[in-house]
Specification:
Helix content is 56%, strand content 9%. The chain has 514 residues and is α+β, with helices and mostly antiparallel strands. The protein has a four-stranded mixed β-sheet with strand order 1-2-7-4, sandwiched between helices. It has a three-stranded antiparallel β-sheet with strand order 3-11-8. Strands 5-6 form a two-stranded antiparallel ribbon. Bound molecules: protoporphyrin IX containing FE. Protoporphyrin IX containing FE (HEM) binds next to α16 and α23. Keywords: Heme, Iron, Metal-binding, Monooxygenase, Oxidoreductase.
Length: 514
């Protein structure tokens, strides 16, 4: 009763006061409220170590992200503070595999954190990548998976074969034995955009053949992505840019002449054409066929197709480019891999093009791919899951409900306790010179680069198909040389990587058996 009287007195004083006094009173109330909120969130997680600034301000994460060195910055913090570090007022970051398996498991009660809202590429609906409701996510994903696995009407292996043949042809025609350097980073981007579009909706965008960013997707991504990664670290900005108010005012629309809106328009048209025709009679051998068969609506197909190019291009391209750089930077690895390919061809164990099964039986190739993904995991950080209301114990400490747990994949796959004291060195032999149990343990840890359990990357099948084939097809045809060993590429790390200017000189490999 007394409290109510005090509030009433306060309001009546305000009522009688002048505007300046009212503004000052409201201002100081707001500041007091913010202070209390900051103190409360600092207090909740005060027992977790981390940079002090991060414990009460999101500017810490924002500033680190803008450096383009996020992988190194986070690794340094984890080195200093241990497997669990506080990186924000309500955020912890871990590189502990047991924790990741636990919070991402199929039966886990951890939902997605609000961070996922900022990867809602279509402002008017959620794809499986951003859907915040776990039950809806699971329901949608169940309908998508047969397409992503390349089952039923989908023939992913054929798609990969077609696009790799085109990649080899472009290099042969435009670069091999010529005085012209190949920008491998850019060409692989064209390749990947075409592969994802052909696998998703049956028709490549044609970027690779013409070496051209036909629908301006790459241009948009380059301008937008660094900004996106940085603002994702500040919840207030993230919520504002993802709000219906902002999106309706300034967000992309399928009718736009360029930018993200133009991209959404292309996707919308592709799906509309398919729904207009009698798809039952005309099979296209793509994921869209399979999704429609599984009962996805026209709108759901649009949302899922729209997410494929962003989700499936920067990740796979990072893997291909970085594995290539690491192969070319080690004469031993390069020589051994070429020899494994040559011997496989001589002994009739490698067809043209190599099949998925044949590639799986090349132990050195498998080791090189795992080790390459380990050296540069395409996703660095992000993907937070939220501790359920009752709280949980992580890395031996109690974490209150509502806390966001970010993952540090870079540190996870360089964990010296798992990979040994030379974890920072590219050494594919670590997957071969060990017993089966150790190998299984290493592989399981690297697999975390694709997420885990309920949230496992559905594009993993396509990614592995590409990785299994692309190096064999390129190295059996060409000899590559890094054009500028002093600075082989321009690589920036945010939540994922952006890699440009990776120049190679190419010549035909005359010694490889045909
Ligand atoms: C080397 C290649 C790739 C890597 C390392 C990778 C990694 C990841 C990671 C870490 C996640 C997030 C997991 C989480 O939320 O906890 C993810 C999700 C996803 N990825 Fe990939 N990805 C790759 C390729 C692809 C490709 C080629 C596609 C599509 C063609 C794709 C489509 C998706 C989708 C749709 C999701 C959302 C899954 C869900 O919400 O359950 N990815 N990926």
């Amino acid at each position: 009763m007394e409290a109510l009287d005090s509030v009433r007195d306060y309001l009546s004083v305000l009522w009688d006061a002048r505007p300046a006094t009212i503004a000052a009173a409201l201002g100081s109330t707001w500041i007091g409220w913010q202070f209390l909120k900051t103190f409360r969130s600092w207090w909740r997680l005060r027992h977790f170590p981390g940079p002090r600034f991060a414990s009460f301000s999101y500017l810490w994460g924002y500033r680190k992200m803008t450096t383009g060195e996020m992988h190194h910055k986070l690794a340094a913090e984890q080195e200093k503070y241990g497997k669990i570090v506080r990186i924000g007022p309500n955020e912890l970051m871990v590189y502990d595999s047991e924790t990741l398996w636990h919070i991402n498991s199929v039966r886990s009660e951890y939902p997605r954190g609000a961070w996922y809202g900022s990867i809602q590429f279509d402002p008017y609906g959620h794809s499986v990548l951003s859907e915040p409701d776990t039950a809806l996510h699971d329901k949608r994903k169940a309908k998508l998976m047969s397409g992503y696995y390349g089952k039923g009407r989908t023939d992913l292996e054929e798609d990969v074969n077609t696009m790799i043949a085109e990649l080899v042809n472009v290099i042969k025609t435009n670069y091999a034995d010529k005085d012209k350097q190949l920008d491998f980073a850019l060409l692989i981007r064209f390749f990947q955009v075409d592969l994802v579009t052909v696998a998703g909706s049956g028709k490549p965008w044609g970027d690779l053949k013409h070496e051209k960013d036909n629908f301006d997707f790459i241009g948009i991504a380059d301008t937008f992505v660094p900004f996106l990664h940085a603002f994702m670290m500040i919840p207030a900005l993230r919520d504002f840019f993802a709000s219906q108010f902002f999106l309706k005012l300034a967000g992309p629309k399928p009718t736009d002449a360029n930018g993200m809106g133009k991209y959404l328009g292309i996707v919308k048209q592709t799906v509309a054409e398919r729904f207009a025709g009698d798809y039952k009679d005309k099979q296209h051998g793509d994921m869209l066929d399979e999704w429609m068969k599984n009962g996805l609506t026209q709108r759901e197909c649009e949302l899922e197709l729209a997410i494929q190019v962003p989700a499936g291009s920067e990740t796979s391209t990072t893997a291909i480019r970085s594995i290539m750089l690491y192969i070319l930077s080690s004469a031993r690895v390069h020589g051994k891999l070429k020899e494994e390919i040559a011997q496989g061809i001589r002994e009739g164990r490698i067809s043209s093009p190599i099949t998925q099964n044949e590639a799986r039986n090349l132990p050195y190739l498998q080791a090189v791919i795992y080790e390459g993904i380990r050296m540069v995991p395409p996703a660095i950080t992000g993907f937070p899951k939220q501790v359920p209301p009752g709280g949980d114990t992580i890395c031996g400490k109690f974490v209150p409900g509502g806390t966001d747990i970010f993952v540090n994949l870079w540190s996870m796959v360089r964990d010296k306790e798992v990979f040994g004291s030379d974890a920072d060195v590219f050494r594919p032999e670590r997957f071969i010179d060990c017993d089966e149990a150790t190998k299984a343990r290493l592989v399981k840890q690297v697999d975390l680069a694709f997420g885990h359990g309920r949230w496992l990357c559905p594009g993993k099948t396509l990614a592995w198909l590409e990785l299994n084939k692309v190096f064999v097809e390129l190295l059996r045809t060409f000899d590559f040389q890094v054009a500028n060993p002093e600075k082989p590429w321009h690589c920036r790390g945010y939540s994922s990587f952006m890699i440009d200017d990776f120049y190679l000189r190419v010549s035909t490999d005359e010694r490889m058996p045909q």
